[in-house]
Each structure stands twice: as structure tokens, then as C-alpha cells.
Design a protein that fits this description.
Layout lengths: L1 H17 L9 H14 L6 H7 L7 H5 L2 H8 L9 H16 L9 H14 L8 E2 H14 L6 H14 L2 E2 L1 H9 L9 H15 L5 E8 L6 E8 L3 E5 L7 E6 L5 E5 L8 E5 L4 E5 L3 H20 L4 H68 L4 H156 L15 E2 L2 E2 L4 H23 L1
Antiparallel strand pairs: 1-2, 3-4, 3-9, 4-5, 5-6, 7-8, 8-9, 10-11
Helix pairs in contact: 1-6, 7-10, 7-11, 8-11, 13-14
């Protein structure tokens, strides 16, 4: 029955979108298309004969007499199983209705976020049509959304909004709720991404019944390797995906009353292990830490306990309790109003009776006055019959006294009734005084909240003082940094001076190298000339050469024959040349 009510809410939006004139009537061709789409999405076999018979054009058909609901109940909803995609069904009805009712371009939420708010509205709305969401459910949803966005709940702002809402109609339609969330009425500083993440978290908790989700390692069934997966726990099963976008599902384990979860000892280099045992298979899981392990074990045990108790998911149970509380409160208010009306009616009846008694007493007094006047006139006119009249008057007076005594008793009774009414009035005043005392207690609570806000402001001032001290410390650090920058600049200037000196020495080295190359070229030219001369001598005098005594020191051989100097002389010339070069460098430096 619960599934049928949820499906009817969703279908109602689609039917309302097709009702362009808002008269509760839709074209038969549109209803045929809607019925066909519903059967396709909900995997219900289409009975074409019944469809044509129900939607036939003559006025004798069921559609004209009973409307669309008989066909919807008999040929679609009665045949629905739980094996269809509810998300696809919701999106189909959402596509039919949202473009005609709201534009999300001027809002801070996307079409997908608006769809999720639409689904949440269908979950929290009342079971009466047209569908609306009451103030208590609005506050519940906004609190959930604020907690999901990690933002603070502002009680005063919602109280102000509640007063505005009570001044109108004390409820919202689905499009008003989407616009309220889309303009970020209670969280002006939130961006699109934060609002989207908050809506998605509330959607998963309320609509998808996601009790817990997160990354953990699982042990494979065949290869026995450990793989990280994104686990999602719902009341009836635990599924796992490749990553948190939940696009690729790798598997699931169905929970039932016979399932159990147990903690395991550390093994295979893995810690924080636990196992889920079911009738068909088991699953070993490794959590990131002990706290995460305990949370998952507790959550899975809660799901198994819910299945054994036959209870719904926690959000649905909480919704039923809130609904029962509202109904009970409404019944008490109606009972109190009925009693007040009865008391008011009884009070009015007593007032009318008192008025009637006063009128009777006034009439009696008037009659007594007339009688007195007549008696006086009779005494003046009939002096001779005074005695007879006096006797008769005594008798009349006795009768009158009896009547007066009777009237006095009746008056006492009426006064007793008046006192009872006054007692009832005092009791009403005491009830009102109790109500005023309750309001004073509520004001005291508001004052306590205000005092807590003041303490929070004081703490915020202390934090600002700490922030100023940090700013001063940063300024001092900045001054020290400037001194270090100045010192660095001085070192850079010294480095530049040393660089210039090094460049000057490099130039001197290049000059000495050029001189050396010039001397080398001169030596080469001299060697060439010597070779030429030797060639000429060899040509004219032959190859005969005088044999001379040998030297004790080894002769240096060059490309052109024996050198004209010894090794000792060559080393001495190198030292002299090096000393001359060093002296020139020192002179240039000075």
C-alpha cells in the first residue's frame, strides 16, 4: 500500500501537467500516451483491448462515468511488481511536468538537483491532494540540507519565515519548495557545488535509503586478492562499486534475517577485518581504521535488526512518527476546540436563562407596583369597606409573601448557577494563565539562547584579538624579511663587483692568450724559415752532415729536427714568462 501511495503522488504531477486548463480534465489521447509510458517504465503488460475500451469516444464508457483512476488502479497499479526502475519512473514523470512549471536557469541549482528536491517533496508531502508539504516537514528537510552542507542552522530566520508562511497558507507546493532551495534563502553564502552536494546527500538518505557509504577493501571470491571498492549500505542489501560515482556496480550481497556480521583477527597483512555471512555467500572486508570498522559493523547489525523486526528504514519510520504526532496533535486541538465550543454554548444558555429570570422579576415588580397603586386607590375610594378590604388585603399579602419567598428561592437557585458559571470562568482564566506562563517560559528560553549568542560573540571578539596579535607578528616578520632583503641586496652588489673583477681578469686572460698565440705564430714562421733554409742546404751541399760530439743532456726533438734549447732552458723561459704575466695582472688590479 505504501508503494501505491508513492506511485500515485508521482503520477499526480504528470496528470496535473497535462491538465492545462486546471479543470481536472485531460484529453483522452494524452491519457493513452501517459498510460502506455507508465506500463513501459513499470514493466506492466499493456492490455490494448482494455485500453481502447476504457478510452472509447462515446459517453457510455468508464472514462466518462468514473474518470481515469479506475483504469489506473485496475490495469496498472494492481499489476505493479517491485522489479522496475523507480528512478526511471520518477524521471519520466518529472520530464512531463517540470518544464511547464519552473525554470532553473535563474536558480542556484541544476535540473538534476531540482529533480532530487522534487523526489524529496513527494516523500515528505501529505497524502492529500493537491500535494503540499507542511511546515514541520519543511523544517525537517531544511535542517537536513543545512547539516549536509556543513552550515549552521539559524533558528530565528526560520521562525521569521514560518510567520510569513502562517500568514499565507502554512504549506508549500513542490515548485515553491524548489524555488526556496534554488534561491538559497537560508544559506546566501553557499555556492552551487555545495548546495548540489547537500541535496545529493539528503536525496541518498531519504529517497535511496542509503544508511552508510564509503571506501573499503574487499577480498575476492576467486583470486582472493584485495581490491578497494565504494560500498553503499541500504536496508535490504550491501552493494559495492568501482568508485563513488556509482556508475559501475561490481556486486552486492542481499541482507536477510539470517545474516550476521562478525569481527575477524588481523591476517595476510590486513587489519580491521570483519566478515558478513549470508545464506548464499560471505564477504570479507577490510576497513581503514578501528573506528570505521566499528561503525560499519554497527550499521549492518542495525539493518539486520530492522529486517528481523519488520520495520522500515529509519527515515521512513521517522516520517511515520512525525505524521502520527501531527495527527494526534491535530485531534487534540480539534477536541479542545469542540470542548471550548460546548462551554461557550453552555455559557450562552446560562446567560439567556439569567436574562429571562431578570425579565420575570421585573414583571413581578411591575405587577406588585400596579397592585399597590390599585390598593391605595381602593382604600381611598372605599373607606367604609376598609375592614373587609383589610382582611382581603391580608390574605392577598400572605399570598404575595409566599410568591416572593418562592421567587427568592428561585433567585437563590439562579445565583447558584451564576456562581457555577463564574467558577467555570475562573477555571478558564487559570488555563489561560497556564498558557501565558508557558509563553513566558518560552521567552526565557529565547533569552537563554540570546545569552548564548552573546557569549559566542564574546568568544568571536577574543578570536579577533588573537587574529590582531597574529597580524602584528606577521608585520614584525615582514620587517625582518625586509632587513634580510637589504642584506641580500648588499651581498648581490658585492657579488656584482666580484663578477666585474672576474670579467676583467677574463679579459686579461684572453689578452695573454692572444699574445701567446701571436708568439706561437712567430715561432711557426721561424720554424718554416728554418726548414726552408735546411732544405736549401741539403739541396746544394748534399745530405752529408758533419759528425759532432754528442751532448750529455738529452736533445729535444721537434718536427723540424733537434731543438736549439735544452729542457732546463725551456723551463726557465716558462717561469720568466709566467712571472711577467702575474706582475702585469697585479698592476692592472691595483
Amino acid at each position: 500500500m505504501r508503494l501505491r501511495d508513492e506511485l500515485l503522488k508521482t503520477i499526480w504531477h504528470a496528470f496535473t501537467a497535462l491538465d492545462v486548463d486546471h479543470r481536472g480534465k485531460v484529453l483522452k489521447s494524452q491519457l493513452k500516451v501517459l498510460s502506455h509510458n507508465l506500463c513501459t517504465v513499470m514493466k506492466v503488460p499493456i492490455d490494448h483491448v482494455a485500453l481502447e475500451q476504457h478510452f472509447k469516444d462515446d459517453d457510455e464508457g468508464p472514462l466518462s462515468n468514473y474518470g481515469y483512476m479506475p483504469y489506473l488502479n485496475r490495469f496498472i497499479l494492481d499489476k505493479v511488481q517491485k522489479n522496475f526502475d523507480v528512478l526511471e519512473f520518477n524521471k519520466m514523470c518529472w520530464t512531463l511536468c517540470y518544464k511547464k512549471s519552473i525554470c532553473t536557469k535563474r536558480l542556484l541549482i541544476s535540473d538534476d538537483d531540482a529533480f532530487k528536491v522534487w523526489c524529496i517533496f513527494n516523500f515528505l508531502s501529505e497524502d492529500t491532494y493537491p500535494l503540499v508539504i507542511v511546515t514541520e516537514e519543511i523544517e525537517y528537510f531544511l535542517r537536513k540540507l543545512t547539516e549536509a552542507m556543513r552550515s549552521g542552522w539559524v533558528e530565528e530566520k526560520f521562525a521569521e519565515y514560518k510567520l510569513q508562511l502562517h500568514a499565507k497558507k502554512e504549506c508549500l507546493t513542490v515548485w515553491e519548495l524548489i524555488e526556496l532551495v534554488g534561491i538559497s534563502y537560508f544559506n546566501k553564502s553557499m555556492d552551487r557545488q555545495t548546495i548540489s552536494l547537500g541535496i545529493n546527500e539528503v536525496y541518498q538518505e531519504l529517497i535511496l535509503d542509503v544508511l552508510k557509504q564509503g571506501y573499503m577493501m574487499k577480498k575476492g571470491h576467486k583470486r582472493k586478492n584485495w581490491t578497494e571498492r565504494w560500498f553503499v549500505l541500504q536496508p535490504n542489501f550491501l552493494s559495492y562499486y568501482v568508485c563513488e560515482d556509482m556508475m559501475e556496480q561490481k556486486g552486492e550481497i542481499i541482507l536477510d534475517q539470517n545474516c550476521c556480521v562478525e569481527s575477524l583477527l588481523d591476517k595476510e597483512g590486513k587489519k580491521c577485518l570483519f566478515i558478513i555471512k549470508c545464506s548464499d555467500k560471505s564477504l570479507e572486508i577490510c576497513a581503514s581504521d578501528k573506528k570505521m570498522k566499528q561503525e560499519w559493523i554497527q550499521a549492518i547489525q542495525n539493518c539486520i535488526q530492522l529486517l528481523r523486526s519488520g520495520l522500515l528504514s529509519p527515515p521512513r519510520e521517522a516520517r511515520l512518527r512525525r505524521k502520527e504526532l501531527r495527527q494526534r496533535k491535530q485531534a487534540e486541538e480539534e477536541d479542545l476546540m469542540e470542548r471550548m465550543k460546548q462551554l461557550q454554548t453552555a455559557n450562552e444558555l446560562k446567560q439567556r436563562q439569567l436574562e429571562e429570570m431578570r425579565e420575570k422579576m421585573e414583571e413581578a415588580e411591575a405587577k406588585a407596583a400596579v397592585e399597590e397603586q390599585r390598593r391605595n386607590k381602593t382604600q381611598l375610594d372605599l373607606q367604609d369597606r376598609y375592614k373587609m378590604d383589610l382582611e382581603r388585603e391580608k390574605m392577598v399579602r400572605q399570598q404575595m409573601e409566599e410568591q416572593v419567598a418562592q421567587k427568592s428561592n428561585e433567585l437563590e437557585q439562579y445565583l447558584q448557577r451564576v456562581r457555577e458559571l463564574e467558577d467555570m470562568y475562573h477555571q478558564l482564566e487559570e488555563a489561560l494563565e497556564d498558557e501565558r506562563q508557558a509563553k513566558q517560559d518560552e521567552e526565557a528560553m529565547h533569552k537563554l539562547q540570546a545569552r548564548l549568542l552573546e557569549e559566542e560573540a564574546a568568544k568571536r571578539a577574543e578570536l579577533e584579538q588573537i587574529h590582531l596579535q597574529q597580524q602584528r607578528a606577521l608585520c614584525q616578520t615582514e620587517a625582518e624579511k625586509q632587513e634580510l632583503v637589504a642584506e641580500q641586496l648588499a651581498k648581490e652588489r658585492d657579488l656584482q663587483a666580484a663578477t666585474l673583477q672576474l670579467e676583467r681578469l677574463e679579459k686579461e686572460r684572453r689578452g695573454a692568450l692572444e699574445q701567446y698565440e701571436e708568439v706561437s705564430r712567430k715561432l711557426e714562421r721561424a720554424a718554416n724559415k728554418t726548414k726552408t733554409w735546411k732544405d736549401k742546404v741539403t739541396k746544394h751541399e748534399g745530405l752529408v752532415r758533419l759528425i759532432q760530439p754528442g751532448h750529455k743532456n738529452p736533445v729535444i726533438m721537434t718536427n723540424w729536427g733537434p731543438a736549439s734549447v735544452t729542457n732546463t732552458e725551456l723551463e726557465l723561459k716558462k717561469k720568466l714568462w709566467q712571472e711577467k704575466k702575474n706582475q702585469e695582472a697585479q698592476a692592472q688590479t691595483q
